[in-house]
TrEMBL record:
Keyword GTP-binding set for record: no
Residues in coiled coil: none
UniProt entry keywords in alphabetical sequence: DNA damage, DNA repair
Origin: domain of life: Eukaryota
GO terms, molecular function: alkylated DNA binding; DNA-3-methyladenine glycosylase activity; DNA-7-methylguanine glycosylase activity
Listed GO CC annotations: nucleus; protein-DNA complex
BP GO terms, sorted: base-excision repair, AP site formation; DNA alkylation repair
Species for this entry: Hevea brasiliensis
Stretch list, region Disordered: 1-44
Residues of the HhH-GPD domain: 127-282
Name of the protein in question: HhH-GPD domain-containing protein
Length: 293
């Protein structure tokens, strides 16, 4: 398969150097079969007043939202890993957005089939943050060895590992504190694999960003690629933002509010729409490389 509002404390803010870094990170930090990772939250900014053109877009989005809500009650939308759900998503996106329909027809459909427990996925996400792919994979492999394999990545086992033990395998002191904070919240009952699966998106966002080292971007990626939530729009992801800019011919990179408005027509399958934005930017990047060669 081919990643907001950020808390100010203990958050590393990184601007991605390329769209591919953003898209690849979306897969790798939460899906071990992918090849690259980074964390891309963004700082809240003052949103500029929308132009007349954008107000028209917003009005159209509002109308689309009403139609979507009537056609797809959110309570009936299932995880994207459920058989047939991708087909429903693609059917809806083709009907609601002709520009996206063309993109869908030129790319293979997405798959969402990773089944890692939430705690393991979140720990892996922390370890992969802001590291080159090979370095992250090497550290993650050593971490698994300490824990006795993926099945041993449990809160009590992580808490039993000292900061010194973690540093010896290449995990920074800061990331060690992030892992311990995550494990501690699982141990004290603030979080659990079962409660995470039951939380709605808003509650999950609030609960997970309370963990040190986990920002909104990371939570969005977790919801899409680990929980397979269908209606997540990662408004802070550079790849998705660039994709929206290119797809709709916007003069400037859309800010979060405009992203919400423009992509409203994708609801309740904004996760799938976002996936195609990564594919769009990958295709454009590949075309540039081919042209240069």
């Amino acid at each position: 398969m081919g990643k907001p509002i950020t808390r100010s404390h203990s958050r590393s803010i990184v601007e991605p150097s390329s769209t591919l870094q953003s898209a690849a990170a979306a897969n790798t930090s939460l899906n071990p079969s992918s090849s690259s990772s980074s964390k891309i939250p963004y700082r809240p900014r003052k949103i500029r007043k929308l132009s007349t053109t954008n107000k028209i877009i917003a009005a159209a989005a509002a109308a689309a939202a009403t139609a979507t809500t009537n056609s797809f009650p959110l309570s009936t939308v299932k995880p994207l890993s459920v058989k047939g759900e991708i087909d429903l998503a693609l059917e809806h996106l083709r009907k609601s957005d002709p520009l996206l329909s063309t993109l869908i027809d030129t790319n293979k459909p997405p798959t969402f089939d990773s089944q890692s427990p939430p705690f393991l996925s979140l720990a892996r996400s922390i370890l992969y943050q802001q590291l080159a792919p090979n370095a992250a994979k090497s550290i993650y492999t050593r971490f698994l060895t300490l824990c006795g394999g993926e099945a041993g990545v449990l809160p009590e086992n992580v808490l039993s590992l000292s900061a010194l033990q973690l540093r010896e395998i290449g995990i920074s002191g800061r990331k060690a504190s992030y892992l311990h904070d995550l494990a501690d919240k699982f141990r004290n009952g603030s979080l659990s694999d079962s409660s995470i699966l039951e939380m709605n998106d808003d509650t999950l966002l609030t609960s997970l960003t309370a963990v040190k080292g986990i920002g909104v971007w990371s939570v969005h990626m977790f919801m899409i690629f680990s929980l397979h939530r269908p209606d997540v729009l990662p408004v802070g992801d550079l790849g998705v933002r660039k994709g929206v800019q290119n797809l709709y011919g916007l003069k400037e990179l859309p800010q979060p509010l405009q992203m919400e408005q423009v992509c409203e027509k994708w609801r309740p399958y904004r996760s799938v729409g976002s996936w195609y934005m990564w594919r769009l930017m990958e295709t454009k990047a590949l075309a540039k490389v081919t042209k240069k060669s």
